[in-house]
Amino acid sequence: MSITVERIFQLMKKENIPQKEMASLLNISESVLSDWKNPKRTTKPTVEQIDFIAGFFTTTTDYLLGRTDNPRMPKGVIRKPTAPKGQPVSKHEALMNQASEELADLPVGDLERILEMVRAYKRK
């Protein structure tokens, strides 16, 4: 397994991102994602996928490619990752999208109560 693929799967494990979810975010099948781990397969992540994954996990492409062992973005660097059309560019954005979808059909009263709970949680 290449260092790039190894690091992608390490980040997925660290952030509890299931293979199914990552494949969906990348707009690929789970089997293609799984094939990345098999050295006998020629399927590897594309430049665009590596860029997206780096942005999603708020790391650098240099880290994913093994050019550095530091997964953190350098201070002062503002990264605007690209993403497949219609896909979120960060875990935060993905979670916000998911929350928005889950909350969309709730009555206003329920939304107000949820907002109150969120505010109380943030005050802790």
Q: Uncertain regions: pLDDT < 50 for 5+ in a row?
A: none
Work out the radius of gyration.
Answer: 17 Å
> Quick one: CATH class of the largest domain?
Mainly Alpha
> What is the fold named in CATH at topology level of the largest domain?
434 Repressor (Amino-terminal Domain)
Q: Give the biggest beta sheet.
A: none
Morphology call? globular
Mean pLDDT: 84
CATH architecture of the largest domain: Orthogonal Bundle
Alpha-beta content class: mainly alpha
The total tally of domains equals: 2
What share of residues is helical?
55-70%
Number of helices: 7
Could you give a short description of this structure?
The protein is mostly helical. It contains seven helices and no strands. The N and C termini lie far apart (43 Å).
Polypeptide structure, described:
The protein has 124 residues and is mainly alpha-helical. It folds into two domains: 3-89, 434 Repressor (Amino-terminal Domain); 90-124. It contains seven helices and no strands. It has helices spanning 3-14, 19-26, 30-35, 47-56, 61-64, 91-103, 108-123. The protein is globular. The mean pLDDT is 84.
Describe the SSE topology.
Elements: H1 3-14, H2 19-26, H3 30-35, H4 47-56, H5 61-64, H6 91-103, H7 108-123
Observed structural traits:
2 domains, about 120 residues, 434 Repressor (Amino-terminal Domain), single chain, 7 helices
